[in-house]
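Sequence in, structure out. Go.
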Amino acid sequence: MTTATGRPCPACGAPAPTGSFCGACGSSLTPSQCRSCGAEVPAAARFCAGCGTPIGAAASRPVGGTPAASFWLYAVGGAALLAVALFLLLGRGPAATPQLAAGGDAPAPEGAPPDISAMSPRERFDRLYNRIMRAAESGNEAEVSRFTPMALMAYAQLPTVDADARYHAALLKVHTGDAAGARALGDTILAETPGHLFGYMVLGTVARWQKDEKRLAAAYADFLRHDDAEVKAGRPEYGEHARAVADFRGAAKAEPAGR
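Output:
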């Protein structure tokens, strides 16, 4: 039976395509299964959010060697994939953000591709995360699904992480369906910085997504209990995410008492 999805095609944006394939571009509208890990892959996604395998590629396993050798083969392959993705994502002509010239304070000429080799791992992660957030706000689910595995790969390569990076990674994990991973990051934020609002925001987001009213109410209550002290602490990350903090605060205050 042919029915309307009610959502635009994730590949081309055609309004409310019907059936199993988009009539405008021919893309599949039904999820598939990753050949490597078996995870469900959203329509139009180019990489598996669970293991990063390109969609359509046959599953492969290293032949011979020790587990450590297999790990480094994966790590080197992942780094190469990330470098190519960053080049395609960040190094395109006019859309690229002007970068500071090496050794100077003046921005590079408009349209000059950024020097990826000069970026820190954190800068790479932040650029990918910001790209994903812009795509999410515009409703471009295909782009979100395309770049989320790359951003999580970049996060895994960070030499050090703080509450802000963990908060970003947790939101990305929620998108991939990794509720346990996102919750673990929320717990880690609170373990390292007790009372940090981002920890409760992560736990509340996961609970709301899972429709776990008990955990959601607990996250709201804990957030409000630490809100005043944390605002007075003046953490810079709260200013960078002022809208998200304000939205969660409003939702927490609107929560019925005793629910």
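Check: Strands lie at 32-33, 40-41. Confidence is low (pLDDT under 50) at residues 1-5, 57-111.
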